[in-house]
Design brief:
The structure is a homodimer. Helix content of chain A is about 65%, strand content about 0%. By secondary structure, chain A is mainly α. In chain A, α5 packs antiparallel against α7 and α8 runs antiparallel to α9. In chain A, about 35% of the residues are buried. At the A-B interface, α6, α8 and α9 of A face α6, α8 and α9 of B. Chain B binds a DNA duplex through α2 and α3.
Chain lengths: ~200, ~200
DNA sequence: AACGGATGGAACGCGACTGTTCCGGCCATA
DNA sequence: TATGGCCGGAACAGTCGCGTTCCATCCGTT
């Protein structure tokens, strides 16, 4: 085998390409393929070579942007973080809970997000870089739930002495468990029942 | 390179081995190494070659027992299932809950079990064989929780109209979320608070 | 209009894992 | 006591991904 050097007869036709500036379309295609492959194969089975191939992009273009898998994951995750929108304050604890739960449900309904989250939680134990990348998300979620609890305390709906950490666990966990871990569904009635039960737990 | 066939001079010393019956010690060593490696590298990064190596066992001995990774995982998981013991009925809903929660906590305290569970939940989405292997566990857990709920209904502590599925989610999820997903701790007081809050939610 | 760095594509050397096959040696069972 | 078939070890061919390097081409910027 020989390199395809000048002087060789053109072995196969080549598609034109290139410009003096990184093209956003290439970066976006790589990001899309990265998440798609992540959901399909899991993080540890994720091959950057395949990512580039499925994005119809040269491998060199990928490695010019990110040095390795962990850096790529961290960078892409941090970008997604920026697009998260807050849910406003509703009138009561139960309505606040419903708003948060519906937001969680909206995310977990996407099979891709569900798979990546499950995989991420498993991989964090082994790849500290991922844990660092995901921390901002956890803080954001925590802050939102703290706000929710503050409002409920101000309204007198729950006691100020509540263990906020455990309260936060109660809000996120059952829906995640049902949708992500068990792979079940969650309709409107389920979310409303959940909100009622969580509210009852928090009032304890 | 040549095979090490009869007639060659002994190239290196070889440790004696072999018998006409599969040795349980070999099977056990493979099982131990399998779970150890699983926790370390995750299912998809799990190499049977490494499993055999770390068990100090020939690769052939492994492949003589199981045809591939999925079969090995299914078989070993089903064996572990047999060792699960039931927790007896306590006097009240809250005490029943505490018993179940302490059992869950005991399991999740082992880093190895925690890692494997997280990984399993992520991998089930991709490897149907694992889903099939784990189903008996889910049924077992479900049956136990159904029993707990039946007793509480009989005592009049909760309504017979309760959504048992959601109730089961409430029992398992918060502790799993805290210990496995977030990597946090759970002391005795936490479990007791959890039991109180879950009981309150179930009574809704 | 000219520049220069990005582009798709191809290949490289390396290392790892897979599933299989062979061997001589050994020992639990019948 | 005889022996069948398991044992560790080693090698195999094949596949795959890694991270790098080269090329000729192209086109957004200045």
């Amino acid at each position: 085998m020989e390199r395809n050097r000048s002087g060789d007869r053109k072995s196969v036709s080549r598609v034109p390409s290139g410009a003096a500036v990184m093209r956003v379309t290439v970066t976006d295609a790589l990001a899309r393929s990265f998440f798609q492959e992540w959901a399909r194969t899991g993080y540890s089975g994720l091959s950057l070579e395949r990512v580039a191939r499925s994005a119809s992009v040269g491998k060199a273009a990928l490695y010019r942007r990110w040095p390795d898998k962990a850096a790529m994951a961290s960078d892409l995750l941090s970008r997604v973080g920026l697009t998260i929108t807050d849910v406003g304050a509703q009138g009561s604890l139960e309505d606040d809970l419903k708003a948060v739960l519906f937001a969680i449900r909206r995310a977990l309904r996407h099979r891709q997000i569900k798979c990546i989250l499950l995989d991420l939680h498993a991989e964090m134990e082994r790849t500290p870089a991922l844990e660092r990348a995901i921390r901002p998300f956890q803080h954001m979620r925590r802050a939102r739930i703290d706000g929710l609890i503050d409002r409920a305390i101000a309204r007198g709906e729950i006691k100020p002495s509540i263990d906020r950490e455990t309260a936060a666990d109660f809000i996120a966990a059952p829906l995640y468990w049902r949708m992500a871990v068990l792979g079940g569904r969650s309709d409107r009635a389920h979310v409303e029942g959940l909100a009622r039960m969580i509210a009852s737990a928090l009032r304890t």
